Structure formats: structure tokens, C-alpha cells
Amino acid sequence: MAVDVFVSEEKIQKRVVELAEQINRDYAGKELMIVGILNGAFMFCADLIRHIKVPVQLEFMSASSYGDGTESSGNVKINMDVKKEMTGKHVLLIEDIVDTGLTLSSLMHLLEKRNPASLKLCSLLYKPARIKHQVKIDYLAFEIEDHFVIGYGLDYAGAYRELPYIGIYKND
Ligand code: 5GP
Fold this sequence. Notes:
Layout: E1 2-7, H1 9-26, E2 32-38, H2 42-49, E3 56-66, E4 72-80, E5 90-98, H3 102-112, E6 118-126, E7 139-143, E8 149-150, E9 166-170
Parallel strand pairs: 2-3, 2-5, 5-6, 6-7
Antiparallel strand pairs: 1-9, 3-4, 8-9
Helix pairs in contact: 1-2
The structure holds guanosine-5'-monophosphate (5GP).
């Protein structure tokens, strides 16, 4: 198994600061509820939140549409839900990757019903070649080609999440 560096640590950190500045401008004067989608977004969420200047309430939730392999199983399961009330709050979801869009389109639909004041999505990665369910990504770090990526929170069968860069997984 080999890992090629696809997006370097330096490039990720530069983009994280740019996104945070954009978020700070857009939410100026407001309070923000950031909802990190576990497990994949934990690192992106932790880095991003350090640069957020508006008051933040941090929550996590977990949903999965993948098994241990590299292809989508087509199922979405809520493993852990947000415990705090979302009604009237400005909610920003932080996701690792929008691939087919199944997970996020289902989640956005579900969370809209909780009547947040606003609901937006921030994703580290987006693979346009794979999209099947349209999702509006309000803040995107990187658009990528159709590769199975790992690192910076993303796993292959539970491994490689700790890498500080995004790599391409090659099974050879
Ligand atoms: P979607 O529902 O958009 O098809 O899939 C979203 C989820 O699939 C992501 O949150 C992530 O867990 C997983 N996923 C999709 N593409 C990749 C990839 O290239 N690498 C890894 N590690 N996970 C992926």
C-alpha cells in the first residue's frame, strides 16, 4: 500500500485560514453553532474553529454511508445526533468530503426540519465526478478529481486519519 501526497499540510492550513476569514465576515455580529460530522471532519473542524472570531457553540454528529471499503453502500445511518436545540440558531455543518452527496443531502434535509435560523455547509473536499445527490456547498476548501483520498481526518478501514496531509490511497 502506497500513499501519494495529494494536498500538502501547508496548502490545507492556508486554505483553512481563508475559509475561516470568509466565515467570520459572513457571520459577523451573529452566534454560530458549528456541527462537525464525525469521524472524518474532526481535524478540519479543529483547525477551522481556531480561526473563527464570532462566538461559537461546538457540536458533533455522526452519520455514515460507507462500510469499510472504497465504494458507497448507499445507506445513511445517524450514529450520533446533536443534543442541543438548533431552532433559531445559525448552524454550519463541517464535513470532510462530499462524494455522491447522499450523506449530506439526507442530513441537510433532516436538519432543516429543526428550524435553524440558517443552515450552511462547509466541506473540506468535493468530488464533482461522483455526485448523484445535489448538495449546496457554501464553503469549500478543495474540489478534487475522482480519487479515494485518505489523511487529514479521512480513513481507509479506520486507518490514516492522523496524517496531516491529504493523500491518495493506492492499493498496490
Ligand atoms: P457521500 O454520501 O457523499 O457519498 O459520502 C460521504 C462520505 O463518504 C464521507 O463523509 C466519507 O466518510 C466517505 N468518503 C467518500 N469519498 C471518500 C474518499 O475519497 N475517501 C475517504 N476516506 N472517504 C470517502
